[in-house]
Specification:
The complex is a heterodimer of chains A (about 120) and B (about 110).
Chain A: E1 3-6, E2 10-14, E3 19-21, E4 23-26, E5 31-38, E6 44-50, E7 56-58, E8 64-68, E9 73-78, E10 87-95, E11 105-106, E12 110-115
Parallel strand pairs in A: 2-12
Antiparallel strand pairs in A: 1-4, 3-9, 5-6, 5-10, 7-8, 8-9, 10-11, 10-12
Chain B: E1 5-7, E2 10-13, E3 19-24, E4 31-38, E5 42-50, E6 53-57, E7 64-68, E8 74-78, E9 87-94, E10 103-104, E11 108-112
Classes of the chains: A mainly beta (about 120), B mainly beta (about 110).
Chain lengths: ~120, ~110
């Protein structure tokens, strides 16, 4: 069974500083990787995805992530954050294969707080 | 295109009651997944439906059930509610349920008293 570990539960950062949110996964088969963001009292919004191809993926709002198969990581980065980036971020994994229909396995989330 | 719509947004029930939550997927999406989100357990997969068939199920007791209609709308039901069922229930839709982007609704917040 797959699992996802988000290494930081909270990340405080100042506005315009760079940020990295770390995600490691464990799986015995090929995986697809996602980052979602959740604002208070809302559902999840997709930031970016890795399905295949280039290991560096770019998403919305200036975020990007790099898939590292050897280190089983999928860290999320942004070179300069804004106050509006304050939210909770979730890393998620979907396994290839028919037994994983519709199932995302999520990490525990990282609360990003951007200070002025 | 309209997004994923979940109704109601908020519910208050008492222990022992049952509850039904509704989810309307994005037009053209045939796969609907349900998740439970709690502060302690995080986001956990409940089940997935595709073309009215449950194809995948998470590790939840039988009190949690669901169904999908021919128009892809889905409902989930929780019977004999327990205090621990208090959570945000999220529905997500995708075109196939395979390696696909899931689009989430705003959720239904259930409080069990």
């Amino acid at each position: 069974a797959q699992s996802v570990t988000q290494l930081d539960s909270q990340v405080p950062v100042f506005e315009e500083a760079p940020v990295e949110l770390r995600c490691n996964y464990s799986s015995s088969v090929s995986v697809y990787l996602f980052w979602y963001v959740q604002y208070p009292n809302q559902g999840l919004q997709l930031l970016l995805k890795y399905l295949s191809g280039s290991t560096l993926v770019k998403g919305i709002n200036g975020f990007e992530a790099e898939f590292n198969k050897s280190q089983t990581s999928f860290h999320l980065r942004k070179p300069s954050v804004h106050i509006s980036d304050t939210a909770e971020y979730f890393c998620a994994v979907s396994e290839a294969g028919g037994t994983s229909y519709g199932k995302l396995t999520f990490g525990q989330g990282t609360i990003l707080t951007v200070h002025p | 295109k309209a997004g994923v719509t979940q109704t109601p947004r908020y519910l208050i029930k008492t222990r022992g009651q049952q509850v039904t939550l509704s989810c309307s997927p994005i037009s053209g999406h045939r796969s609907v997944s349900w998740y439970q989100q709690t502060p302690g357990q995080g986001l956990q997969f409940l089940f997935e439906y595709f073309s009215e068939t449950q194809r995948n199920k998470g590790n939840f007791p039988g009190r949690f059930s669901g169904r999908q209609f021919s128009n892809s709308r889905s409902e989930m039901n929780v019977s004999t509610l327990e205090l621990g069922d208090s959570a945000l229930y999220l529905c997500a839709s995708s075109q196939t349920g395979g390696p696909d982007i899931q689009y989430f609704g705003a959720g239904t917040r259930l409080s069990v008293l």
